Amino acid sequence: MSLLKDFLSKKPLFYEDIDYDTMPKAWNSIKEKIRPFKIIHIVGTNGKGSTGRFLAQILKQNGNYVGHYTSPHIFNFNERFWLDGKVVSDKKLELAHKKLQDILNDELIKRVSYFEYATLLSVILFCECDYFICEAGMGGELDATNVFDKQLSIFTPIGLDHTAVLGDTLEQICETKFNAIQEKTEVLLNNEMNKKCVKIGFKIANKKQANINFAKDILNQTDMDSINLYSRKFNLPNFLRSNLTLACSGAKQLLGFLDISKLDKLNMSGRCEKIANNIYIDVGHNELGAIQMVDFFKDRKINLIYNSFLDKDFDSILKTLKPILKYVFIYEYESSDRELGGEKLKTALNKLNISNSVFDKENLKNIFDDKNNIYLVFGSFLLVESFLKELQTRAN
């Protein structure tokens, strides 16, 4: 049996065609061997990672053994698996890999995708947990994570993203995601959910006889006071405060009470994270993420360090960001599976009259000494990973 890293290296990160029969077959072959656990399904476009991690931290700090599965990762594959307060070790991952290889037949081992295999690993890793917080990938109804029975489904804001797979309109994407709702279960919505999405969500939930509420419907004034206190303590941007509120409603739904008096700072990288006095990184990478950045920086002008995959709607993203942009540096990096924006990105910037140039990595360290400008590294997990690795290399 090959080591996990070698095994995954043979599976592409992105697939043009997905066999939606594979994951149910794989899950059916192992579920009888797994101890039942309480699964909380996190679905949406933006905010899944931070909402799930806030919820995991709250549940843990109230005495529960918690696993949180998220994707993608920035540096290491291990980052996808948070268990009882920390990222799992290489040793635990290898043991889970061995167990999974022993359970699945050769045909399923060959057929499961990178994401499907990671999802199955999370089941092995978290099988002893009181709560398993499971973040959907880009989908909902047909997502690999939707094979599990859920105790609670939590929906973060939904917007246009992955249109080639999920649908060309917001309505189509909403239907795909909300169809992940399980019959006769509990459902919670972020308070900031788009009105069109809300209408579709309630329609599908009612059809499935699921009990659907906004986060605010679960929380009382005392709860909101504690959320406000925490938000001020850690200077949360509005979007992270909204995600915390959703996580708190989930915790109260599960525990019957809310106590975040001992809640630590969000233990997750890349969410409007300040890595220096003048430098922020964010993995938002879509229009919803851009809206959140405009809200956070408001009247301040920033230098954007950015790139985008060619299949992303970077025109809309740049139009949204334009009010806060002083200059855009196009950050070039290696991407073997998907093509970057290239000349089309430069053309889009020029059409919007946004000053731009290719980022010179030789001057990477200089931006830390630039006290007159704010820099935002904004884009995919791969872009943020490349930037941070380049930074580490030049610092050493």
Please provide a written account of the structure.
The protein is α/β, with parallel strands linked by helices. 42% of the residues lie in helices and 15% in strands. It has 16 helices and 14 strands. An eight-stranded mixed beta sheet has the order 4-3-2-5-1-6-7-8, with helices on both faces. It has a six-stranded mixed beta sheet with strand order 9-10-14-11-12-13, with helices on both faces. A hairpin with a 2-residue loop joins strand 3 and strand 4 (86-87). Helix 3 (48-60) packs across helix 12 and helix 13 runs parallel beside helix 14.
Quick tags:
alpha/beta; Folylpolyglutamate_synth; six-stranded mixed β-sheet; eight-stranded mixed β-sheet; Bifunctional folylpolyglutamate synthase/dihydrofolate synthase; 396 residues; 14 strands
Spatial ordering of strands, largest sheet: 4-3-2-5-1-6-7-8
Q: Give the helix/strand class.
A: alpha/beta
Unreliable spans: none
Element order, helices and strands? HHEHEEEHHHEEHHEHEHHHEEHEHEHEEH
Over the alpha carbons, how many angstroms does the gyration radius reach? 21 Å
In percent terms, what proportion of residues is strand?
5-15%
Distance between the termini: 36 Å
Q: What's the overall average pLDDT, rounded?
A: 92
Helix content: 40-55%
Instruction: Describe the largest sheet.
Output: 8 strands, mixed
- Identify the overall geometry: globular
Determine the number of helices (DSSP H or I, runs of at least 4 residues).
16
Q: How many β-strands, per DSSP?
A: 14
